[in-house]
Amino acid sequence: MTHTATGKLPPHPDHADPAHDLAAENRALRARMAYLLEQAERNHSIMTRHQAFDLNIIGAANFPELIGTIFRVLPVISELDSVTLTLIDEDADIRTVMLKLDVVFADFPGLIFVETLDQLDLELGRRNAAVPAPKPLLGMYDKLRHAPSFPNAPAGLQSVALVPLMRNKRIIGSLNLGSCDPTRFTPSLGTDFIEHMASIIAICLENVISNEMLKYIGLTDSLTGVYNRRYIDRRLLEEIARARRQRYPISLMYIDVDHFKRVNDTVGHGGGDEVLREVAARIKNELRTSDALARFGGEEFVVLLIDANLESAAFVAERIRAGVAGSMIVLSPSLQLSVTVSIGVACLDVDAAEGEAALTARNLIERADGLLYDAKEGGRNRVVSFREPP
Ligand SMILES: Nc1nc2c(ncn2[C@@H]2O[C@H](COP(=O)(O)OP(=O)(O)OP(=O)(O)O)[C@@H](O)[C@H]2O)c(=O)[nH]1
């Protein structure tokens, strides 16, 4: 045993000065408490931010607003380096409707559509009745494996969580979270929080998608897929207000298929429907994306042209007329027929147009309808854009 110069034994490490021990323990406890407090504050702040996020997405009025909020806010509040969303869209219904409602998908590069469940990155092989809800998949990012879920992965992505989006026991897609921190998503991490977040996102998604579908159905003609009268009535009011503010002309075409009764008599009602679909497609072919085409009922169509004066609208109308008459409509190899349309074109003079928008809209439609009547009277298969003096 070694003795010190004073003859005292040095303090044994296991029997250190009790006061010193207590101070050290105290310091350690304080540090631990400070750490826990910091964690609690951080968790509280995350919870508060997430509650605000939940309210935000629950309040989203439409699909772009919801998706936009998810992509903009979630990476910030959850401190993530990548957030993408994969949606199952079997027959491209969601995409068709959203496009029709003017959603610009290029604005959302993190939005991915797949046709089938198997195309999701989730491990669904073990799914059976006993395991109704698949769990989120957490782990290291694998460039090859995760490319479909993270097509534009940021450099340095390290760990990912692929969280199923469930509605009524059905998987509608996955929420894909990525972090440059390799310890962020490890297989041992609890997933309650992200599952809860995903369930709210899934409810909101289903809600806005159903609402957009209803909106679409309410504004669309089911036979031809173009807009219906309700849409044009509503849009015309908006466009008249905008055209007056920004001082540009708008024009309206009233189109009617000539002798359509004969078409029905010749090819039957089903054949007539097919002809209407083809006529709608040929009209659409001549229009810009800013123009709106609607079936007004029967064999009548209306086109609203934005920023088009009478001359340019009449020019487009002539192209439509020629496009419909230009080639036979083929119903089957043995059944082809030639169809023509008559068109009345009227323009809203924003300098002269005053008064209530609803009245202005009605006048515009009536003028185009009157000119269509002139086109019919004049022999059909023609465009009339001004009334001949008597
Ligand atoms: N196939 C089909 N026919 C329709 C539809 N809606 C209306 N029709 C038919 O469209 C025809 C319209 O005929 P009319 O209004 O008499 O006019 P038209 O024969 O086109 O003659 P003009 O307009 O004077 O050239 C009627 O026979 C309607 O039954 C529809 O959704 N599908």
TrEMBL record:
The protein's enzyme class: transferase
Coiled coil: none
Gene3D superfamilies: 3.30.450.40, 3.30.70.270
EC number: 2.7.7.65
Signal peptide residue numbers: none
Domain of life according to the entry: Bacteria
Reaction(s) catalysed (UniProt annotation): 2 GTP = 3',3'-c-di-GMP + 2 diphosphate
PROSITE patterns: GGDEF (PS50887)
Residues in GGDEF domain copies: 248-388
Pfam families tied to this protein: DUF484, GGDEF
The protein's name: diguanylate cyclase
